[in-house]
Amino acid sequence: MRSYQRRRGCAAAIVTVMSTASAQLSPELHEYLVAHGSPPDEVARDLIAETGRVLPDRAEMQISPEQGAFLTVLGRLLGVRSAVEVGTFTGYSALAIARGLAPGGRLLCCDISEDYTAVARRYWQRAGVADRIELRLAPALDTLRELSAEPSLDLSFIDADKEGYVGYWEEIVPRTRPGGVILVDNVFAGGRVVETDPDHTAVQAIQQFNEHALADERVELVMLPLSDGVTLARKR
């Protein structure tokens, strides 16, 4: 989910309206990448298309198809039973996470927009995953602080306001079980993360978060060139 600049990708044969393509890929190579992974199904394609049609100036806030496939596969690999998402938008990432949950698994979604998440609810219902998802419309920090302090989270995905990243991280890391995973989106800040003196507060916030996470001895992490950059952290 981006908020600092616009960039459109292309996966023409599969998705007619696209969110951010993986960094440094040409449109042709991105189309090839999506075509050679598990593709979005009809529900996901329709959600992507509706988001682009109804919210054309904000469609880039949606994760890319390859991110969706990654979230689902990772969830299945980890056997995720307890997951949290910070920043839901129209629900594509939550749909992907919910589909990767182990039997009986639950996903808690944190967002503040009734309008955006109303779209999400319709597609979760259509996909048959609505019973696995709890949506709380409130400031995410408040929601996270209400969770048990026990380290029980298997998977978390942070994709919301960039200035809030450090705060979300500090609530989630202690609540993550050893071996659990935290994913953080947009860590490339549209490529601007390498600027020495960016003039945008969101870019500065991403730079600060990246340094904060790197120095955190509670986790081991890798930054992946997936979409606009995704940090994958494993709780020690």
Topology (SSEs and partners):
Layout: H1 27-35, H2 42-54, H3 65-78, E1 82-86, H4 92-99, E2 106-111, H5 114-127, E3 133-137, H6 140-145, E4 153-158, H7 165-172, E5 176-185, H8 201-214, E6 219-224, E7 230-235
Parallel strand pairs: 1-2, 1-4, 2-3, 4-5
Antiparallel strand pairs: 5-7, 6-7
Helix pairs in contact: 2-5, 3-4
Q: Distance between the terminal alpha carbons, to the nearest Å?
A: 27 Å
CATH architecture: 3-Layer(aba) Sandwich
Fourth CATH level, the homologous superfamily: Vaccinia Virus protein VP39
Give the uncertain stretches in residue-range form: 3-19
Q: What is the CATH first-level class name? A: Alpha Beta
Q: Characterize the quaternary organization of these chains.
A: single chain
Could you say how many structural domains there are in total?
Answer: 1
Q: What amount of the residues lies in strands?
A: 15-25%
Largest sheet: 7 strands, mixed
Structure description:
Helices cover 36% and strands 19% of the residues. The chain is α/β, with parallel strands linked by helices and 236 residues long. A seven-stranded mixed beta sheet has the order 3-2-1-4-5-7-6, with helices on both faces. The two termini are 27 Å apart. Mean pLDDT is 92; it is low at 3-19.
